[in-house]
Design a protein that fits this description.
Helix content: 40-55%
CATH superfamily of the largest domain: Mannitol-specific EII, Chain A
Structural class: alpha/beta
CATH topology of the largest domain: Mannitol-specific EII, Chain A
CATH architecture of the largest domain: 3-Layer(aba) Sandwich
Mean pLDDT: 84
Strand content: 15-25%
Radius of gyration: 17 Å
Distance between the termini: 41 Å
């Protein structure tokens, strides 16, 4: 059965305020429907909308923000091409520990708790073998600058993704503000819609291969 969200649920899911979400729904820019004058949203439709409208996240912010370069936020030590975990919580723990060891965050326990809370709301598995892990709220207290990590599971992990398929590629986003978070998701969504990049990420044998693939995709798709 399709998962249905209220206006409040969707605002929390997208990390926007309810007034902004309501306005976008009224304008037909977010797929939704009304039940007794109350907005309702299908999570499956929202995930599909987000993937298809890759520029929307940046456009709906209250003010302009420069879109961060994905390749500029990644570092080789924050890339793991051989995740050992076979469960959702195991992946969350392993990805968090990777950032701790890379000295990209100051508190692994705080981040892990935030990631678990976010997954309780609904899975960050967006389909096509991809998950975009992130806390519900900014993590400025454990990261002084935006942090991005990448993990890959060859066998795949059951992650309750929107399409029901196993997830093989995990990006973890620890933004220092909601604006940066939305901008980063917009950039990631545009890049990950490209099958050329996905194939290079699937076949990468080193962290440098991942970095090069993402740099090339950013130059080709977004120009910087």
């Amino acid at each position: 059965m399709a998962e249905i969200m209220t206006l409040k649920d969707l605002a929390e899911y997208l990390r926007m305020n309810e007034r902004t979400v309501s306005k976008l729904a009224q304008e037909g820019r977010i797929p939704g429907f009304k039940v007794a004058s109350q907005w309702r949203f299908s999570k499956e439709a929202i995930d599909a909308w987000f993937a298809a409208q890759m520029q929307t996240a940046g456009a709906v912010q209250d003010g302009a923000v420069e879109r961060p370069r994905v390749s500029g936020l990644l570092a080789p030590e924050a890339i793991n091409l051989g995740l050992a975990s076979r469960t959702k919580d195991g992946v969350l723990s392993e990805m968090t520990e990777m950032l701790v060891k890379a000295k990209r965050i100051t508190s692994g326990s705080a981040l892990l708790s935030a990631l678990r809370e976010r997954e309780k709301l609904c899975s960050t598995g967006v389909g096509r073998g991809i998950a975009l892990l992130h806390p519900r709220h900014a993590v400025s207290d454990i990261a002084k600058e935006p942090v991005l990590g990448f993990g890959r599971s060859v066998e795949g992990v059951d992650f309750d993704a929107v399409d029901g398929e196993k997830v093989h590629m995990f990006f973890i986003d620890c933004a220092t503000s909601d604006r940066v978070h939305l901008a980063l998701l917009a950039r990631l969504s545009r890049l990950l819609a490209d099958e050329v990049l996905l194939e290079r990420l699937r076949s990468a044998s080193t962290a440098d291969d991942v970095m090069e693939a993402i740099r090339d995709a950013e130059k080709r798709l977004v120009g910087n």
